[in-house]
Amino acid sequence: MIWDPFLAEVETNAKARQIRNAEGLVPHYTFYLASRKFADTYPETAKQVVDELGKLSAWANSHQDEAAGLLSTSTGLDKAIWLKTRPACPTVPNA
């Protein structure tokens, strides 16, 4: 099992091909975890984190080229790989 951006990287650089995916089997979810203690102790901080992630997602969706460049710098994967994966993994602000 592999996921983007690593799927896009091996498809591009190793000429791998996908033989099966989970499309239609399970919904795609992104999730973030916090301990109960942290969430109970710092509820406003937890909410701020979720709000900021929503803003970041909205920015990345409207600035895909720049976002791909930043992700490339931080991960070492080519910018083209990130540009290939961005449309396939849309994010919904504040979802």
What features would you describe in this structure?
- There is one protein chain.
- This protein has 95 residues and is mainly alpha-helical.
- It has one domain (6-88).
- It is built from five helices and no strands.
- It is globular.
Task: Give the topology.
Layout: H1 6-13, H2 36-41, H3 43-62, H4 64-75, H5 79-85
Helix pairs in contact: 1-5, 3-4, 4-5
Major sheet characteristics: none
Uncertain segments are none
The total tally of domains equals 1
Number of helices: 5
Q: What is the mean predicted local confidence, pLDDT?
A: 85
How far apart, in Å, are the first and last alpha carbons? 26 Å
Estimate the strand proportion: under 5%
Work out the radius of gyration.
16 Å
**How would you sum up the global shape?**
globular
- What percentage of residues falls in helices of 4 or more residues? 55-70%
Number of strands: 0
Structural class: mainly alpha
Order of helices and strands: HHHHH
